[in-house]
Amino acid sequence: METPTLVYDGDCGFCTRCARFIERWIPSDARVLPWQFADLDALGLTEAECEAAVQWVGADGVRAAGPDAIARLLGDSNPLWRIAGAGLRLPPVPAFAWPAYRWVARNRHRLPGGTAACAVASAGRH
């Protein structure tokens, strides 16, 4: 794969709003795609993985999910964002990042841009 890709839940208003923020404010060569319109087979992803968390597939084939995916996206950006991405990977941050990510996923229907569809879609998420 030549282009890194961040795959998110396009049925979620909050997730879509975050994706638009990324496209506007975080300069990266990465494609930002809703999983519902991505070629998951080509990316080596499953629907279950994409329903569980945002996914990163790097140009080098490295895959990451959740806050690790966000850290990789930030690491693919300009120096300021790369610092933030590196910070997400420094201990003990990852130990707190996943629980925070899961809390956001469970409550995304209550967050800005969230809709009732986000709550239904997130019911099976961890």
Beta-strand percentage range = 5-15%
Unreliable residue stretches: 122-126
Reported for the largest beta sheet, the result is: 4 strands, mixed
Order of helices and strands: EHEHHEEHHHH
Rg estimate, integer Å:
14 Å
Q: Could you give the order of strands across the largest sheet?
A: 2-1-3-4
Give the overall average pLDDT: 90
Q: Structural class given helices, strands, pairing?
A: alpha+beta
Q: Describe the oligomeric state of these chains in a short phrase.
A: single chain
Q: Helicity range of the residues?
A: 40-55%
Give the CA-based shape: globular
- The overall strand count is 4
The tally of helices reads: 7
How many domains comprise the coordinates?
1
N-to-C CA distance: 29 Å
Describe the structure.
The protein is α+β, with helices and mostly antiparallel strands. The protein has one domain (5-122). It has helices spanning 13-25, 40-43, 47-52, 66-75, 79-89, 93-107, 116-122; strands spanning 5-8, 31-34, 55-57, 63-65. Strands 2-1-3-4 form a 4-stranded mixed beta sheet. The protein starts with a strand and ends with a helix.
Defining key terms:
globular; alpha+beta; protein-disulfide reductase activity; disordered C terminus; DCC1-like; four-stranded mixed β-sheet; 126 residues; 4 strands
What is the compact description of this entry?
With 126 residues, the protein is of the alpha+beta class. Helices cover 52% and strands 11% of the residues. It holds the Pfam family DCC1-like.
Question: Which secondary structure elements does this structure contain, and how are they paired or packed?
Answer:
Layout: E1 5-8, H1 13-25, E2 31-34, H2 40-43, H3 47-52, E3 55-57, E4 63-65, H4 66-75, H5 79-89, H6 93-107, H7 116-122
Helix pairs in contact: 4-5
